[in-house]
Design brief:
This protein is of the alpha/beta class and 406 residues long. It has two domains: 111 residues, Alpha-Beta Plaits, CATH 3.30.70.150; 281 residues, TIM Barrel. Helix content is 40%, strand content 17%. The strands form two sheets. The protein has an eight-stranded parallel beta sheet with strand order 11-10-9-8-7-6-5-12, sandwiched between helices. Strands 2-3-1-4 form a four-stranded antiparallel beta sheet.
Length: 406
Amino acid sequence: MTTDQEYVIATYLVHGNLNFHKKAQEIAVGLTVGTWTDLPMARKEQMIPHLGKVIDVKVLNHHSNDIPKALLIIGYPLVNMNPDIPSILTTVFGKLSMDGKIKLIDLHLPDSLLLKFPGPRFGIDGIRSLLGVHDRPLLMSIFKQCIGLPLRELEIEYQNQIEGQVDLVKDDEIFFRDDYAPVLKRISAFEKRNQYQKEKNGKKVLYAVNLTGPVTQLVEQAKHLCNAGATCLLLNVAPYGFDILHRISADPDINIPIIAHPAFTGSFYPSPYYGLSAPLLLGKLMRLSGADIVLYPSPYGSVAMPKNESFNVAKELRCPNNIHNPAFPTPSAGIHPGLTPTLYRDLGKDFIINAGGGIHGHPQGTTAGGIAFNDAIQAVVSGLSLKEAAEDSPALRSALKKWGAL
C-alpha cells in the first residue's frame, strides 16, 4: 500500500439505518477498482495501487432517537485522478452523490497535489498592496440597476459609488447582455474615472467586470479584458466550473484579481443530507482554484447562512497551508452599516464588506451610503461605537436611523 500522503482523503456525512462500516468499505472499493473479493490474486496485485481505503468511521449518535448518522473518512489514491477539481470531485463524489443521504463534508489534499493548483494570485496581501489599504476591512459596492441602462447613466452611477470612497465596485453577476453599455467601453470609461479619483485624492478603486461568454472562450476573453485595462474580474464559478477558474488564475497573461461569485452554489450546500458543505464548496475549492476574493452569504443578512458555516468558510479562505495565498472572505446579502461592528468582531480586519442595497438604499443616495460605511469602518477600527461616530457623521446617523445596528 502507498502512504497517506499519496491519497485524497474525503470526509462524508451519511444518514440512514445502515451498517456504516460496510458502507464505507463499499464506497472505498466501488469508487476506485469497482470490485475486489471476486478478483483473482494476480489482478488484485495489479489493482492494489488503485484501491481506496477506509481510514475511519465515526458513528455520531449511538444513543439518540434521531436518524443514525456517521462520518466516513475514505482515502483515494492520487494515481486515480488528474490534478483538477472535476477529476477529484468525480472520483470522490460522482455517482456517490446520487446514493442516498450522503454529503461531502471535506477534502484533504496532500501537498504534492496542492502544488498543482494555482491558489489566489494576489490574495489578501496582494489586493491590499494594489489598493494601498492595510489597516482596515475593505469596502465593495455592488453595481445595481445596470441591466438596460446606457453607458452614460452607468457612468453617473459609477461616479456616485467611487465618491462614496469604496475600494472596489463590482458588476452585478446577472449583467450578461450589455448591448447598451458594451464591456470594453465600460472598462475604458470607468478606469478614466478611477484615474481621476486617484489624482484628486489618492484613492485607488478596482472595478470588477463580469466575465461572460461561452465557456470555451472565457480564458481568451479574460485576456482580452486585461489587455483593455480591466483591473479585476468577476466570475460566476459554479455555473461555469471550477476548472475555468483554475485555468484563468493560472494563466500568466491574466494578471489581475478574480472575484468568485456564489451564484448557483445554493443548489449544493444548504441541505444537511446532500451535496457539498459550504466551507468546502465556497472556501477550500474556491481558494484552491484561484479566487482572490470569495463572496458568500453572511449569517446576518437577507440570504443568511448558519453562523458556524459562514465562519468556517472564512476559515478555509484564510487558514495557512504553506502553499497558497489566503483569499479575502466577503460575507454578503443584506449588509448595512449597522452590521459593521459585528462583522469586525467576528472576522477581524481581513475581510471585505460587500453592499448593494446598504449603499444604494441610503436615504441621501449612493455616495452617502458609501460614506456611511466608511465612517462605520473607521469607528470600529478606532474602538468607537457607531453611536459615537454618528455624532460627527450625518451619513452614518441617517443609515442607523433607517437600518439600526446589530
